[in-house]
Amino acid sequence: MPEIVTIGEALVEVMRTERDQPLDRPAPFSGPYPSGAPAIFADAAARLGASAGFVGTVGEDPFGDCLISRLAADGVDCAAVRRTAERVTGIAFVAYRSDGSRSFLFHLPLSAAALVDEAQIPPGYLAGARGLHVMGSALAGSESMRQACYAAARIVKRAGGTVSLDPNLRPELMPVDRIREICQPVLELADIVLPSGNEAAALTGEPSPENAARALLARGVRLVALKQGEAGSTLYAPDRVIAVPPFAVSEVDPTGAGDCYDAAFLVGHVRGWPLEQTGRFANAAGALATTRLGPMEGVFDAEVVRAFMAD
Known about the structure:
This protein is of the alpha/beta class. The chain has helices spanning 37-47, 62-73, 136-139, 143-158, 176-187, 197-204, 209-218, 257-270, 275-289, 302-310; strands at residues 4-7, 11-16, 29-35, 52-59, 81-84, 90-96, 102-106, 131-135, 162-166, 192-193, 223-227, 233-237, 240-244. Strand 9, helix 5 (176-187) and strand 10 (192-193) form a beta-alpha-beta unit. The protein starts with a strand and ends with a helix.
């Protein structure tokens, strides 16, 4: 059974080939690229050396083949991935701007990605899980997906495993106040929360990321890993605060960087590494993820990440 499991949406991205080409007019696209925040996380965790499992649903179509082939090739356990003929595999269309921002067009609620439920998780699949990672995008995906996340979090928590939460707020899918509401049942069980600064503030209602991190600790979270992009990250524990410096890279595509950070952090955590080492490993994996175009194309093996850290 996998030691790290995540649940959620699997989709392909079809991307503009050049910047500043909006989605409302004709222009070339490139793709499909395997994607979906939980799928990227699972792929990264496996490439970084963990036994990783993914619970998701794809269509019985070429895009579904694309996703499963990539996950399986990278070592992800796909025993809980379901194929369906009811709907097509999820698709996201993406446009990039010169200022680094992106525009997304999703159809996930009407795709196979939304058809995830607790029943597709094999009996005992979570029994050996040392970590369950839940993302806000999965909680927003559908009612059945949300309930699957809640149930899995309870199972892993009762068994003594770690529950982690990345709020991963997506205004394209659901308003922030609603995502805050649906994150609450997982937040009550979470040992680790891995937000960006804006997400931390939105999740708690606190005016600053620092106050938000401390508010999360006051609620019982054991560790907050605050992702700060080019500034690195800051780790908040009840007894200390650790500023983890960034790694300098030339950014090509930020998609998936936070998911790779999460995966590296959870790998370090389940291995029992010191916090400083875990934070540096996560920063390195997140930085490297931005150097390739495509959501999973910036996922690297652990040896590559360690070599990058040593340079």
